[in-house]
């Protein structure tokens, strides 16, 4: 597999996160304009997001790992697959790309380029939902790497599609996306003051998933094998 320099990896993280957020925000705006039914609007927001994740991870995964998510980057830094400097630059690229994605979506729909959200998303239930969403996402990624790496694009896209519906928070599961969505007073928005609770829960869920995956996939030597080795 080819190895890409840091500049190209950061570009992949920025453009990937930009397209992801443009899809989340743009499909939310389109869905809201086309229907007054909240459930139908959420469906119209969900399907494009899952589909775009499959495309982005398939195409950009070989370049940067296709994190597009500071929580995922944190996990790979803790696994020592990224240096601290690389991780910080990844996160910066993701946040910048995400905000650019919101601006792109707003421009396409003739909205103010930046419009801080007033959509309330807070409370213990929503924070817990974000921790669950991030735990499931990171577990999906780590398990996929272990058992079927080629399926990760589909696994992540399908997981997020499902998590939109089974979590009370509609599964942000991504601090960069949460920050970017705070700049959009639309269907997908979140108030800036609600970000700390979401981001904290997402990071905690991601770290918990790393600990769980390390335990779950730790291979142990069977008693039979040990006896044979001693003989």
From TrEMBL:
Transmembrane segments: 12-31, 51-76, 88-113, 125-145, 152-177, 197-217
GO cellular component, one term: membrane
The keyword Transport is assigned to this record: yes
Topology within the bilayer: Multi-pass membrane protein
Keyword Transport set for record: yes
GO molecular function, one term: channel activity
Alphabetical keyword list: Membrane, Transmembrane, Transmembrane helix, Transport
SUPFAM superfamilies: Aquaporin-like
Main subcellular location of this protein, as a coarse class: membrane
Subcellular localization(s) per the UniProt record: Membrane
Family named by the database record: Belongs to the MIP/aquaporin (TC 1.A.8) family.
Official protein name in the record: MIP family channel protein
Organism this protein belongs to: Afipia clevelandensis ATCC 49720
């Amino acid at each position: 597999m080819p190895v890409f320099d840091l500049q190209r990896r950061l570009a992949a993280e920025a453009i990937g996160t930009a397209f992801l957020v443009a899809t989340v925000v743009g499909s939310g705006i389109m869905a809201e304009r086309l229907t007054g039914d909240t459930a139908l609007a959420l469906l119209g927001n969900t399907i494009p997001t899952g589909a775009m994740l499959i495309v982005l991870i398939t195409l950009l995964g070989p370049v940067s790992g296709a994190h597009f998510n500071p929580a995922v980057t944190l996990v790979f830094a803790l696994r020592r697959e990224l240096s601290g400097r690389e991780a910080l630059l990844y996160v910066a690229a993701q946040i910048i790309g995400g905000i650019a994605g919101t601006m792109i979506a707003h421009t396409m729909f003739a909205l103010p380029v930046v419009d801080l959200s007033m959509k309330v998303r807070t409370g213990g239930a929503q924070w817990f939902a974000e921790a669950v969403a991030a735990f499931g996402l990171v577990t999906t990624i780590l398990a996929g790497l272990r058992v079927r790496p080629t399926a990760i694009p589909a696994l992540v896209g399908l997981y997020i599609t499902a998590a939109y519906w089974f979590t009370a928070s509609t599964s942000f599961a991504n601090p960069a996306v949460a920050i970017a969505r705070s700049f959009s007073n639309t269907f997908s928005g979140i108030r800036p003051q609600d970000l700390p609770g979401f981001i904290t829960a997402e990071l905690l869920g991601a770290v918990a998933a790393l600990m769980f995956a390390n335990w779950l996939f730790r291979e142990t030597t069977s008693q039979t094998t040990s006896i044979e080795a001693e003989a």
